[in-house]
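Journal club prep, notes for RB
We'll compare a predicted complex against what the paper describes. Inputs for the magnesium ion case:
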Amino acid sequence: MILGHGAAVSLYPRLAWYGFRRHATYWAAALAGAFTNTVFGVLRAYVLIALWQARPGLGGYDVAGAVTFTFLTQAFIGPMQLFGGGLDLPQRIRTGDVALDLVRPASLQLWCLSEDLGRAAYLFVVRGGPPTLVGALLFGIVAPHAPAAFLLSVALGVVVSFGWRYIVALATCWVMDDRGLGVLSMVLTTFFSGLMLPLAIFPGWFGELARALPWSAMAQVPADVYLGTADPARALAFQALWAAVLLALGALMTGAARRKVVIQGG
Amino acid sequence: MIEADGVGRTFTVRRRVVHAVRDLSFRVAAGEFVACLGPNGAGKSTTIKMLTGILTPTSGRIRVAGLDPSRRRTALARRIGVVFGQRTTLWWDLPLRDSLELVRLLYKVDRKVFRERLDEMCDLLDLGGFLATPVRQLSLGQRMRGDITAALLHDPAVLVLDEPTIGLDVVSKAEVRDFLRRLNAERGTTVLLTTHDLGDVERLCRRVLLIDHGRLALDGTLDDLRATAPGVTSIEEVVAGLYLRSRTTPRTPPPAPRPAPDGPSGRA
Amino acid sequence: MIRTYALLAWTWTRAAAQYPLSFALMTAGGLVVGGLDIAVIWVIFANTDALAGFGLTEVMFLYGASQLAFALADMLFGNVDRISQHIGAGTLDVMLIRPVSPFVQVAADRFTPHRIGRSIQAGAVLAVGLTRLDVPLGRVWMVPVMVVSGIVIFTALFTLGGALQFLLTAAPEVANAFTYGGATLTQYPLSVYDTRVVRGLTFVLPLAFVNWQPGLYVLGRPDPLGLPSWTGLLSPAAALTLAAVAALAWRAGIRRYRSTGS
Ligand SMILES: Nc1ncnc2c1ncn2[C@@H]1O[C@H](COP(=O)(O)OP(=O)(O)OP(=O)(O)O)[C@@H](O)[C@H]1O
Ligand SMILES: [Mg+2]
């Protein structure tokens, strides 16, 4: 594919739109996912309510805050792809088609990022809406503290999530068993994003560490921005920093992959 | 051996009812060799699936080897062999030998009998060269021979094949045909197959069932088929003529015995 | 039937054994995923001494019992929830022409022995919980009964999930809400949930009989709903009832099966 001048300007938005549309065709699967996320949200909410009844004010949240946190993080599972996946890349690496992608006169990383943003936008609505709505109806959730900052934080969270998943996917070029890698990534993401429990209640140095790692930018931080339990400016800066670091790392790996796949021939 | 009385099967596709098979009646006696012909979408595969118990008919009554296929599916499975040309009954990841061994276990075939039969099949179908190859790496012709072997390990009285020669080269086709002919002649196995290859019919079958829009349009010998188009010599042209006629008059295929109920009648 | 299952499972185990590294990694992965749940329990009890009236050892006992049952049911029959893949790929057609129940064939297809890791882990948690609890011998016999009942209940849930996929071919993930949801639900004492939810789980979808009612009996604790203490002894009956419902649903699914159009 040869791009003329100016084509690149509209290429990436168009890719994002394609990503959006492509996922829109799997609406039944998305709704099924939303249903499952909602059910699990209800189960988690009860456990957290029990915990917050035993320790009111734990981690700086009240009960309503803890419930809101639960349903928000469940709503993030789809757009942030917290269980991994969402990219075609591992599949294309396995089949060798990635060689074609790498010789395109457009950045593979930006290409994937655009499609992923489209995907995330669709899933934010379809898989994020139902859990939030059901949470609000069953338990009542609090209103967003700073809506604009929250949306920005979600977008940055998606970029961080993409940065991480892109690295994991590209690592398939070097690691033999990509399933093991997938499990490792899933474990790190689900636990350290705050999906299973708020990172704010992780004890001691372990908590400090968990809150500083990139995964917290995918669920804990946007939820905190929503609840007003984090300073929006600092939170967004934290996410932007990790986004930059992971994207830079991904770019380096793309170069290495191009050398490996294209020049050495796989 | 096979009895179908007024068999019908409908599918609901996006609220529309598709009559895949309707009011189909025929009998196949033990030891017969019958081919089922018909244009794409006529309902041949659906019929085969009902005869083997995969699909439950929406109307009518079926007996195969004296059993109702959908109610006595597992009992029936021991008496019939089934081959799908378009899909394998073997396990993709296992070598052919292991796949056959699994089939042996599932059908509870005695080890000694299994050895003898496998040797015989190796002889007739020339399996020896690829018994150790995983099924996914077999060529279509090799896989088909493996599938036929798997369907016959338990020595069924009836063999049902859905397009067994699809995609095979001239030599493989001839081998498969020759094998089926001998199976029918020497062991007396009843064979029912569907095909789009009229060569199969000419070389193998005394009797033809022509299915069109889910109905039986003709049940007779090859000569009966030829008689529908006097003066045409090639059997291909005879059948092409019949199929084309069914396209232009979709609701009332010419030899159908009774008027069609209303409603869309599938595609031809 | 059991013999056929064992034969199929053994064949797949042998096939898996040809890739020992992959096998080891998957076992380790399963252990780590299971370890996450334990880490969550650890974080919760780092913050509190009791959750909805239950201490750490009691939660370990309840968690271990339900997760052991779930892990075993998942290893033996969890593949049933992949039925939609078999429907889509047409492999169910092939299973239906064999003289063996399609349920056994689907359950044993690609049997993965590495899931035994989860069971060992859950068993260890259960054992630690039990030894720290000092359960009197007169009630300890209920523990194996509840694990077996739990296996039956979870297997029935997998079967119901599979039967559901004959209807919902486009969205088979819905079944996960019941199977994995059931496993998650029973990790904690049911007293954390609203009493209406617990009633539903007792009288409608009998998940309370996996570890909650029999667990209360073993622990010698009164039921918050006020049900008599022998309710826990009804676990096998509840399990068999659900299994019967699941078997009927499965049969209805097979009869409704429409194959694929090619
Ligand atoms: N599972 C199904 N769901 C919906 N419609 C179906 C299904 N199976 C078959 N049909 C429809 O029933 C009709 C008959 O199909 P069938 O597969 O039996 O035809 P066929 O004679 O085997 O055709 P071909 O020669 O192309 O294999 C077709 O119109 C088909 O679209
Ligand atoms: Mg067909």
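Talking point for the session: The longest strand of chain B covers residues 16-28.
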